[in-house]
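Researcher: Sequence recovery benchmark, item below. Answer with residues only.
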């Protein structure tokens, strides 16, 4: 069976949601449709591939079979059928781009013809969202900081860029835009694998101006991304004013004197800064040696500085008091104070001395406190007496010891010594100190100074000395624990217990000493990591160490204990992995002396023994070459500290750094975990990429290993296996789209691939009949084949094969039939996904090599003028015909002129009019043509004209006799006439050969060669036979030949002569070649083809100078294109330039060509018809190929290129021309072909070729372009522009008024069109850049193609 059904996807594009409404993995139903009749089920196979990641974004399908028409059977014929299957997405929580993958038909029955929808595009729509908010709801910043970070945090996983906008504004707050802060509007972009916190720097304006303590403004957070939920969209920023104003007491007021009872002023001024608000400071008095309310008045005065008076000083007055006591000069102070944080005080205190104005004696101790130790046994105290004048009598002063209490708590006073002063000065008194070896409390008592002398005043402030007697004995109390390092819990999970004791280790006690024991957190926290038995006040325990019979024990609210004191500390077990944590046990005592605590601090370390685990979240994954891939590690447990794991890649068949990114790094788990930030298990991901190359290869693999040097981290799923799927392809193509081959040859077609292979790729080459019939179906034109071929059969990882070619031999059979050019197709296809065959078909055109002979029945004709008609027979012989052939029968003037001597004939002769591929004509045909001869009464010489046969347009015709001379014999005889039949002058030899013809039989004839030089003698010879040879002549001499003859019929005599120029090899000139001069009046163009001759040396080549009508031309190279030549007569002169080296021209002879340009005549025959046989305009190159055919023989043809840089011409008489690199890619080009026949008729044809520039993308028609069959139309078009298939991989087609636009590819078939004219528009579609094609060039302009056609 050789029938086919068609299979295609019902839709070209499907949308796959990431998740369904119930949160399950999303799915979409994809349908395959079968068109055509079948009596058996049909199987196709589908697979998925694309940029979306298998198992991460969707669940892969690999070679899944789909059974179409399952109910079909010989008894039940199925016409159409649709079968569907589900494609499932993998739901995750990551915000990512919509990603694309494909469902492709990767295999099918031999009876299936896959339609253009070979693959369906699946759009994987992401539906996840992340929460984004400001890190802080409020933030405070000092004005002098000039900036503050506004930080935004994303909660969730992003696998694509997510943008948010941060803006600042005053809002309803008091800070002013521009004055206090600068407006900010900035876009923050969160990128995959980068920090989850991003910050914007907000500028704060520092104005050095004291203002309100706090001014506020706000920042807002928005996003245009639908995947973003903004949970905290506002932040309040408080600007703390830290500008200062500096005030001081003026320098001259810092030290003042005033008599008792007087006034003094103190002034304050601003020395730096300015104010926008009121600033208040205070001046207040402070006692020194002078006493408040006794020696001076207590005052407190406020001073207010504003913007108006900040530059002025402010003063306040202070009053002193007078008394009758004799005193030293006393001091008090005035202090400058402010509670305003913006105020800085300099020179903050003024000193004021009060000068005493009274008479008398003043007595006082020289010191007010005395500290002594027990072991000193004695101490002294001194008294000073002063007055305004010397003593005139003795005065007595008593020094007394005043005890607060004794052992019975009784107070008493004891006089130590009476001091008698006869003069002013100082005297000292001595007292005893007792000592023992017990630790006692400190002893306190007071020495006082008194007198009964009314003339003596004891200075109140120095009338007592406080004596402290310090004990010099020491007791040592220390702390001990069983172990300072302890494991958190035991094998049963119970927390550990530590016993700590407080001990008296040295010394004797004569009094009770209280020692407090307590714990203090380090990294370990009480009630979370441990707790103790210390449950006294404030969680601290006081332990008493006292001797028996301590008289004070009962006086204090303390427990009566002594000796060693112990307590327990309990470690709290948990399941949290944490660092080794510490806390301390400490001792404290309020005793100021006599006690040393050592050791007073012991640090306890809690060693954690909890475990966590880590594992790859998958064990196998497949990624596409050139893709970025993220693998993740799940970790489990509770973390109070971060942990580390190591990941390292290991090569398999894939090689690190060559096929993928090497991985060797340390990864932190639970980063940021701490005692106050406990983290549960989570996931951490690492990105790597599979390197893209251009080599087709097999699936490679490597692995990533997970381990940890941290003993608390247990590793599960320690190996992740990764397969790298190849995404490369090679381009398999014919080296030629069209082949021309003759019958009867073994012909090699060349197939090549472009790219590189690391493995073999198979493809199939198959022949298909068009007009040529192959052997598969019994044809005899060629041998059919269907071959499976292999590229890169030796390719491997170590042997990469690139850009290979293969030849496929096609045998073309030979026959003896004259037939049309026959065509067959050679089609390439491959089931290997790595094989791309963009142009799978090559056409083989078989040119017939059978030749038939067309000939005239005679080589020459003679006709008497009065006969009136000449019959000429044209024969075709030599084989059979499968097509008609034409031979052109024309006449050409000789000495006879058409219209005067004969009637011109221009007639196509058709042989085999009934011949066709289905009707082979085997008979030989003869066609008779009559040429009319015009009889006139004039007496003239015999005249001749020529009959020409021409079959230039048909290579199957061989003209064995293509021309014959017809001689018209004048029947009005006027006597003997002599004719030169030919003239072959001397060129290489030294001979002249002449051939003569006589109109009568001659009785005698004489030929004389006359030398135009005296160097040689003349030669005379008999030439009655009509033939004569003169030899032994000079090369550089001119000659004249004289012929004289006598008629044997009537005795008439005739003479004739001819001059022969000297022929010199060293003479340089030019001569016309091909058609010589071609004139194209429609475009004012004259083409002259010539060749330079006479120069014997090849190097250097000859050059020439050309002049048209005596005006020198800029170029003189054949073919010479003369443009804009006016109507009229013209003369072209070609003058050879003398070579500068090598063989030179002894003589240079100018060569003249005269021609006439006339307007195109209306009397000419119909112009030749020119047809473009194909048109391959420049797409990736700068070449234009011209292929045209003519409906008749032409004398010459020229191709004209009109473009943005002017016009260009090229000869294209043969109908074929390659114009290489002739135009800029950015210009539109008009290609015109003009052809001229021998009778001067001119035909033309034009075609526009659009510009093909990278930034301008469009389409153009190819091959037949538009083919209308019945009510259907087939449009064949091609994209243009560089990288055209990548830039716009699909176009849209619209028939105006008939639906669309819809996606379309070439060839595009539209059925069921109404009769009439239709307009079609093909629009290229811009492709967007994607992650896998980041550097894709884009079209600057898209150019549509619009055209009309008739149905």
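Model:
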């Amino acid at each position: 069976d050789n029938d086919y059904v068609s299979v295609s996807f019902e839709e070209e594009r499907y949308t796959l949601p990431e998740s369904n409404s119930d949160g399950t993995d999303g799915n979409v139903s994809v349908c395959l449709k079968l068109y055509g009749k079948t009596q058996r089920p049909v199987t196709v196979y589908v697979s998925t591939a694309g940029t979306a990641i298998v198992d991460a974004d969707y669940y892969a399908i690999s070679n899944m079979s789909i059974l179409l028409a399952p109910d079909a059977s010989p008894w039940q014929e199925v016409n159409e059928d649709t079968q569907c299957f589900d494609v499932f997405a993998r739901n995750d929580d990551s915000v990512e781009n919509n990603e694309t993958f494909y469902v492709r038909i990767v295999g099918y029955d031999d009876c299936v013809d896959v339609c253009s929808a070979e693959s369906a595009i699946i759009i994987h729509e992401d539906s996840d969202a992340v929460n984004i908010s400001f890190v802080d709801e409020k933030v405070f910043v000092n004005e002098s900081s000039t900036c503050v970070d506004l930080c935004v945090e994303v909660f969730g996983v992003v696998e694509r860029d997510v943008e948010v906008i941060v803006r600042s504004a005053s809002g309803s707050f008091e800070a002013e835009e521009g004055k206090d802060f600068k407006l900010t509007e900035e876009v923050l972009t969160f990128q995959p694998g980068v920090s989850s916190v991003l910050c914007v720097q907000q500028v704060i304006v520092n104005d050095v101006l004291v203002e309100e303590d706090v001014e506020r403004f706000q920042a807002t957070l928005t996003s245009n991304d639908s995947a973003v939920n903004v949970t905290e969209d506002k932040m309040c920023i408080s600007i703390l004013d830290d500008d200062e104003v500096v005030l001081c007491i003026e320098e001259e007021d810092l030290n003042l004197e005033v008599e008792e009872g007087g006034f003094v002023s103190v002034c304050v001024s601003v020395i730096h800064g300015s104010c926008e608000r009121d600033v208040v400071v205070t001046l207040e008095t402070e006692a020194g040696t002078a006493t408040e309310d006794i020696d001076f008045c207590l005052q407190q005065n406020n001073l207010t500085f504003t913007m108006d008076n900040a530059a002025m000083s402010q003063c306040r007055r202070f009053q002193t008091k007078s008394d009758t006591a004799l005193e030293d000069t006393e001091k008090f102070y005035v202090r400058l104070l402010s509670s305003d944080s913006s105020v800085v005080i300099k020179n903050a205190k003024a000193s004021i001395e009060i000068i005493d104005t009274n008479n008398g004696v003043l007595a006082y101790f020289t010191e007010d406190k005395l500290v002594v130790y027990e072991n000193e046994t004695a101490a002294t105290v001194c008294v000073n007496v002063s007055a305004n004048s010397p003593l005139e009598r003795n005065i007595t002063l008593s020094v007394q010891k005043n005890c607060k209490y004794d052992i019975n708590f009784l107070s008493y006073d004891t006089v130590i010594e009476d001091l008698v002063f006869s003069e002013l000065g100082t005297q000292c008194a001595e007292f005893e100190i007792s000592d023992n070896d017990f630790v006692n409390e400190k002893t306190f008592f007071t020495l006082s100074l008194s007198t009964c002398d009314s003339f003596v005043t004891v200075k109140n402030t120095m009338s007592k000395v406080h004596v402290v007697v310090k004990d010099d004995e020491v007791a040592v109390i220390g702390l001990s624990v069983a172990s300072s390092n302890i494991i958190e819990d035991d094998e049963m999970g119970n927390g550990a217990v530590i016993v700590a004791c407080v001990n008296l280790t040295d010394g004797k006690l004569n009094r009770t000493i209280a020692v407090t024991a307590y714990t203090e957190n380090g990294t370990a926290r009480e009630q979370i990591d441990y707790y103790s038995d210390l449950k006294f006040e404030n969680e601290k325990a006081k332990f008493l160490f006292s001797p028996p019979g301590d008289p004070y024990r009962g006086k204090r609210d303390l427990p009566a204990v002594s000796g060693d004191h112990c307590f327990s500390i309990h470690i709290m077990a948990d399941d949290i992995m944490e660092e080794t944590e510490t806390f301390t046990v400490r001792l404290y005592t309020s005793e100021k002396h006599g006690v040393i605590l050592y050791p007073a601090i012991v640090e306890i370390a809690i060693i954690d023994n909890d475990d966590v685990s880590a594992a790859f979240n998958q064990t196998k994954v497949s990624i596409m070459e050139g893709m970025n891939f993220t693998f993740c590690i799940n970790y489990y447990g509770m973390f109070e500290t971060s942990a580390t794991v190591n990941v390292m890649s290991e090569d398999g068949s894939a090689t690190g750094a060559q096929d993928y990114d090497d991985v060797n790094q340390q990864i932190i788990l639970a980063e940021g975990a701490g005692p106050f930030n406990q983290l549960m298990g989570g996931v951490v991901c690492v990105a790597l990429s599979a390197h893209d190359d251009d080599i087709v290869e097999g699936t490679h693999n490597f692995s990533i290993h997970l381990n940890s040097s941290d003993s608390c981290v247990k590793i599960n799923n320690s190996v992740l296996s990764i397969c790298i799927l190849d995404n490369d392809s090679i381009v398999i193509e014919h080296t030629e789209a069209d082949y021309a081959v003759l019958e009867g040859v073994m012909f090699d077609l060349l197939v090549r691939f472009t790219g590189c292979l690391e493995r073999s790729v198979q493809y199939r080459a198959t022949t298909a009949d068009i007009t040529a019939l192959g052997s598969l179906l019994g044809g005899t034109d060629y041998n059919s084949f269907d071959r499976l071929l292999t590229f890169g059969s030796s390719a491997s990882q170590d042997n990469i094969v690139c850009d290979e070619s293969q030849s496929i031999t096609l045998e073309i059979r030979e026959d003896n039939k004259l037939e049309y050019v026959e065509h067959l197709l050679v089609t390439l296809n491959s089931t290997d996904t790595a094989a791309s065959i963009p142009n799978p078909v090559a056409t083989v055109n078989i040119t017939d090599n059978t030749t038939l002979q067309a000939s005239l029945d005679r080589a020459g004709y003679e006709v008497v003028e009065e006969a009136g008609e000449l019959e000429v027979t044209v024969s075709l012989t030599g084989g059979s015909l499968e097509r008609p052939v034409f031979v052109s029968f024309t006449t050409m003037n000789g000495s006879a002129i058409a219209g005067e001597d004969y009637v011109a004939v221009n007639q196509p002769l058709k042989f085999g009019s009934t011949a066709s591929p289905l009707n082979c004509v085997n008979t030989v045909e003869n066609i008779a043509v009559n040429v009319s001869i015009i009889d006139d009464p004039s007496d003239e010489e015999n005249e001749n004209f020529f009959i020409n046969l021409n079959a230039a347009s048909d290579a199957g015709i061989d003209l064995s006799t293509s021309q014959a001379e017809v001689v018209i014999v004048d029947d009005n005889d006027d006597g003997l006439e002599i004719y030169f039949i030919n003239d072959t002058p001397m060129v290489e030899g030294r001979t002249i050969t002449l051939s003569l013809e006589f109109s009568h039989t001659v009785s005698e004839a004489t030929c004389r060669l006359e030398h135009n030089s005296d160097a040689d003698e003349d030669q005379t010879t008999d030439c009655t036979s009509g033939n004569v040879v003169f030899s032994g002549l000079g090369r550089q001499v001119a000659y004249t030949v004289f012929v004289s003859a006598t008629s044997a019929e009537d005795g008439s005599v005739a003479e004739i002569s001819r001059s022969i120029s000297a022929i010199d090899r060293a003479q340089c000139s030019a001569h016309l070649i091909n058609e010589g001069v071609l004139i194209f009046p429609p475009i004012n163009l004259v083409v002259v083809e010539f060749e330079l001759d006479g120069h014997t040396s090849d190097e250097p080549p000859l050059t020439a100078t050309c002049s048209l009508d005596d005006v020198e031309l800029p170029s003189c190279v054949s073919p010479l294109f003369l443009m804009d030549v006016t109507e009229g007569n013209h003369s072209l002169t070609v003058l050879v330039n003398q070579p500068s080296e090598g063989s030179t021209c002894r003589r240079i002879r100018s060569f003249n060509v005269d021609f006439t340009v006339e307007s195109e005549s209306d009397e000419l025959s119909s112009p030749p018809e020119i047809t473009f046989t194909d048109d391959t305009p420049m797409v990736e190159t700068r070449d234009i190929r011209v292929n045209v055919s003519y409906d008749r023989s032409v004398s010459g043809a020229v191709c004209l290129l009109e473009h943005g840089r002017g016009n260009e011409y090229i000869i294209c008489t043969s109908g074929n021309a390659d114009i290489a690199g002739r135009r800029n890619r950015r210009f539109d080009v008009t290609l015109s072909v003009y052809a001229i026949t021998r009778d001067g008729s001119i035909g033309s044809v034009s075609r526009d070729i659009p510009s093909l520039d990278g930034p301008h993308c469009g389409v153009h028609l190819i091959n037949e372009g538009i083919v209308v069959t019945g009510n259907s139309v087939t449009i064949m078009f091609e994209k243009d522009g560089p990288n055209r298939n990548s830039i716009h991989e699909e176009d849209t087609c619209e028939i105006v008024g008939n639906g669309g636009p819809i996606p379309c590819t070439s060839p595009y078939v539209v059925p069921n069109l109404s009769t009439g004219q239709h307009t079609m528009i093909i629009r290229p579609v811009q492709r967007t850049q994607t992650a896998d094609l980041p550097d894709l060039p884009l079209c600057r302009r898209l150019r549509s193609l619009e055209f009309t056609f008739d149905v």
